[in-house]
Q: What sequence folds into this?
């Protein structure tokens, strides 16, 4: 008797958990769609920007020199921005990013860490590692004007020679089924675009009219490129978080369903055993009286 | 082709979304050193933008936008306005200009860059107010 009731109780609690995880899965799906459509909306800007940089670099004669391109060997410190989520229950999302970040830090210990997201902040606090800054006030969908000040600060610090390099550790979004943690070098700026855009073929035949001169334009374009690259990292991370949560909650819901099935089976068997036992009791009692 | 019917493609793109994507007869944008007008079949151009009003004429209608910085690229009858900030005149709320103004006042002048940022923010507020009144 007691056994069957215990199983029923357990099944009930698993059912309740399934309700919660299923709801969270639905919410994550909705959030994912919002984040994804934003990621898609941001793409044209990046593509045009990369195209422009490629075109103008062609027009600039000789070596391009700009403070954001020049590597700085003499600076001791470097900076690392780690993008994690504010909320948990999203599978290995944060763990993967943080593993990548700690691996990066093991290689270059003199690094100022800028941590985005409560999960990362808590982890580094647990490790007792100092963070230069904790950023937990960005919402689910970071806006460009929220990201821009950080990009400006990194560029300023780098140009002043405070940091040898600036890296961003984040979850790169390739497709719904594939995201990989990555440590992207934001500064010094590399020529390769951050996007998967097809190899840019320099269009030598276009003769632009430039205003102001190409070199001056490039000096304006490069900071803009750095900003948009950083913004892309944030967008990717936002999409990745929702995907990870969606997958994690789907797995949890499925596991709960499986558990309910097996608990139901166990309950039925327990009930059957109980009935058999009672019947046996009655029959043997009756036999003893007869 | 008659001059009145010829159009070119015009897109206003910000980091967050594509604000405008249409065929236009003429476009006037604020370049870094003054206003610049674009008509169909203009020679390829790359230009730095300043703060100001962007006027797009499409099918007899005029659309106004506030833009702040960025780049314009004209190539093969396609004009791309890449800007960090763009707002359609009809989407400007009455309180927006005041908000921009108070933000501009908060910028402390420490060096040349912050002075420029402050002047720019003031200019943006001014244009926002102008557009809000005319809308």
A:
């Amino acid at each position: 008797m007691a056994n069957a009731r215990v199983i029923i109780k357990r099944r009930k609690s698993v059912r309740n958990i399934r309700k919660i995880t299923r709801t969270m899965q639905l919410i994550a799906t909705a959030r994912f769609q919002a984040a994804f459509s934003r990621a898609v909306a941001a793409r044209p800007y990046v593509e045009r920007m990369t195209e422009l940089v490629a075109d103008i670099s062609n027009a600039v004669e000789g070596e391009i020199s700009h403070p954001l391109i020049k590597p700085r060997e003499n600076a001791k410190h470097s900076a690392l921005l780690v993008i994690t989520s504010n909320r948990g229950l999203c599978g290995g999302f944060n763990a993967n990013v943080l593993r990548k970040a700690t691996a990066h830090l093991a290689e270059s210990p003199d690094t100022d860490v800028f941590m985005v997201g409560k999960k990362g902040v808590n982890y580094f606090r647990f490790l007792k590692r100092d963070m230069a800054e904790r950023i937990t006030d960005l919402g689910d969908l970071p806006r460009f004007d929220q990201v821009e000040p950080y990009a400006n600060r990194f560029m300023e610090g780098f140009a002043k020679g405070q940091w040898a390099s600036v890296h961003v550790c984040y979850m790169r979004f390739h497709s719904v089924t594939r995201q990989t943690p990555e440590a992207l070098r934001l500064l010094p700026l590399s020529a390769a675009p951050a996007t998967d855009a097809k190899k840019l073929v320099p269009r030598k035949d276009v003769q632009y009219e430039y205003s102001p001169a190409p070199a001056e334009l490039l000096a304006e374009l490069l900071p803009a490129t750095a900003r948009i690259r950083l913004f892309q990292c944030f967008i990717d991370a936002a999409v990745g978080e929702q995907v990870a949560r969606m997958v994690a909650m789907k797995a949890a819901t499925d596991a709960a369903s499986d558990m309910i099935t097996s608990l139901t089976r166990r309950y039925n068997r327990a009930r059957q055993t109980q009935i058999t036992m009672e019947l046996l009791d009655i029959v043997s009692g009756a036999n003893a009286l007869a | 082709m008659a001059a009145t019917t010829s159009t070119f493609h015009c897109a206003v793109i910000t980091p967050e979304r594509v604000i405008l994507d249409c065929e236009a007869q003429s476009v006037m944008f604020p370049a870094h050193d003054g206003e610049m007008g674009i008509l169909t079949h203009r020679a390829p151009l790359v230009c730095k933008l300043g703060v100001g009003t962007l006027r797009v004429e499409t099918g007899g209608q005029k659309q106004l936008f506030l833009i702040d910085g960025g780049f314009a690229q004209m190539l093969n009858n396609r004009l791309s306005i890449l800007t960090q900030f763009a707002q359609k005149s009809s989407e400007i709320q009455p309180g927006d200009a005041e908000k921009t103004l108070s933000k501009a006042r908060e910028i402390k002048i420490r060096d040349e860059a912050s002075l420029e940022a402050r002047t720019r923010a003031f200019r943006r507020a001014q244009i926002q107010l102008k557009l809000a009144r005319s809308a």
Summary: The domain at 26-200+208-247 of chain A is CATH 3.40.1380.10 (Pyruvate Kinase; Chain: A, domain 1).
